[in-house]
Amino acid sequence: MKEDMEKLTKDLAERARKASFSLATLPGEEKNAALEAIASLLERRADKLIEKNKLDLEAGEHNGLSSALIDRLRLTPERIAGMVEGVRQVISLPDPVGQVLEQTTRPNGLDIRKVSVPMGVIGIIYESRPNVTVDCAVLCLKSGNASILRGGKEAFHSNTALAEIVQDALLETSVPVDAVLLVPTTDREALNHLLKLDELIHCIIPRGGEALIRFVAEHSRIPVIKHYKGVCNLYVDSEANLALARKIAVTAKCGRPGVCNAIENLIVHRDVAADFLPETVDALIAEKCEIRADTGSRSILEEARPELEVKGATEDDFHTEFLDLILSIKLVDSPEDAIDTINRYGSGHSDAIVTANEITAERFLAAVDTSTAYWNASTRFTDGFEFGLGAEIGISTDRLHARGPMGLRELCTYKYHVRGNGQTK
User: How far apart are CA 350 and CA 404, in angstroms?
Assistant: First the structure.
């Protein structure tokens, strides 16, 4: 069995590596033609996709997945249409390959150009959300990279159907069909072997829960771009428009609680807490959100709403990515206290401030240690599609190479083109 998995993964990687050489030099119009073929086939097979997705949904419900995780797993006509729109948005974006990033001419006449090029072969390890299959395949194709996709068992039927669509579409184009390959098993042994193929695979991007990402980072011989977890924070300042803050808080938590850019912690300035919290918590509870409050906010809520039984927040709660309808609340005494709190508990994903004070806002934007900082807007916009990237292959909480939503540019590296006329040293 071990030998079979080793052979399977090495074969996939060798095929992807071979395809990557052809893909790296394809003109942009040929890559775009392949993306349009994928978009068209997604539209034509939408009904079949939904049928396959139902198998995963039924298994998820049987296995006790939370409602938020079931939501992440679900494909609907609207979500498939969104996937198609995302593909076509990527088509409309400039080809990132071959861009001259820097250019200089040396005193000896050498023309030195730093040029964007594909990484080569990218492995994407992901859980739950089947749309990742298409997002990653499309972004890798446009940026000239071959991809090896390894989805989770909870979305196996959906991922398989989506990968078949991509490969069937590529058969009609000049893009090698092996440019997008799905690992046809969810056996952990296959992943173990895949992570050792550093001579064939050039980058690993894990997308999923913290346990998966830590496993990949600890076992990979291949460079890993990580998105550990999304402990996103919203700070409501003493000079906030409270109605605006309430709207952002409720929608950023309850709109889709199972996604990584939903807030997990609500941080409130003590001076506005009594005015802000009771009505806000009423709105959150109406959305079936469980509240976990620190001592100060719990006291305010119990006085204003004595009929409520508010659960106390633990230290661990403020570090936790719930991915569910659970929200921790903490009071602070100043914007600096809020910044310190976010830098302590946040995961460097996305954090927001609501305030009318520009000086406070600019200080927050500069001082919060995060990939994406917001002023008077929801953290839910940390998304490749929302940023105009078409989609994202991941949201990096690393600092090297890429940070935040990773689009086409972040999937390229560079090399130097040096033009001379006989210079010697």
Answer: 8
